[in-house]
């Protein structure tokens, strides 16, 4: 997540302790998914394409806790998010027959794209 999350934006906690707790929980979920779901090559491709599509249309998410105001930074972050996700997608395809590494990469990218849609609306 550290290779894509800084560029996609989205969910941010208000303190470092909360962020650490959420990161540990998400990591446990990713490992559990990777160990208990044998993704075939079609599933890996589809999940990664959903991820790239989501990043293309949504990233970077502007968040009050981590604001981006300059248009050049917004464009730069979108490009870096797409590039890093695409490279990790290719790595997950290369590692398909090498154990659970491909699944870990795929689930990490997918959950990262889901976190982009966790925007709280002010009432």
Total number of strands: 0
Count of discrete structural domains: 1
Describe the sheet with the most strands.
none
Q: Give the fraction of residues assigned to helices.
A: 55-70%
Sequence stretches where pLDDT stays below 50 over 5 or more residues: none
N→C terminal distance: 30 Å
In round numbers, the mean pLDDT is 79
Strand content: under 5%
The geometry reads as: globular
In terms of quaternary structure, the protein is: single chain
Structural class of the helix and strand makeup? mainly alpha
Q: What is the string of SSEs from the N terminus onward?
A: HHHHH
Instruction: Please count the helical segments.
Output: 5
Rg estimate, integer Å: 15 Å
Would you spell out the secondary-structure blueprint of this structure?
Blueprint lengths: L4 H4 L7 H21 L4 H18 L12 H24 L6 H15 L8
Describe the structure.
The chain has one domain. It is built from five helices and no strands. The chain has helices at residues 5-8, 16-36, 41-58, 71-94, 101-115. Helix 3 (41-58) packs parallel to helix 5. It starts with a helix and ends in an 8-residue tail after the last helix. It comes from bioreactor metagenome.
Give a quick precis of the structure:
The chain contains 5 helices and no strands. The chain is mainly alpha-helical and 123 residues long.
């Amino acid at each position: 997540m550290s290779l894509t999350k800084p560029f996609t934006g989205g969910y941010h906690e208000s303190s470092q302790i909360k962020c650490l707790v959420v990161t540990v929980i998400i990591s446990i979920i990713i490992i559990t998914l990777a160990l208990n779901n044998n993704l075939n090559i079609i599933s890996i491709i589809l999940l990664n394409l959903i991820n790239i599509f989501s990043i293309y249309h949504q990233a970077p998410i502007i968040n009050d806790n981590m604001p981006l105001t300059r248009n050049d930074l917004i464009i730069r972050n979108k490009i870096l998010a797409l590039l890093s996700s695409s490279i990790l997608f290719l790595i997950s395809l290369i590692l398909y027959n090498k154990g659970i590494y491909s699944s870990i990469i795929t689930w990490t990218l997918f959950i990262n794209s889901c976190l982009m849609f966790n925007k709280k609306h002010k009432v």
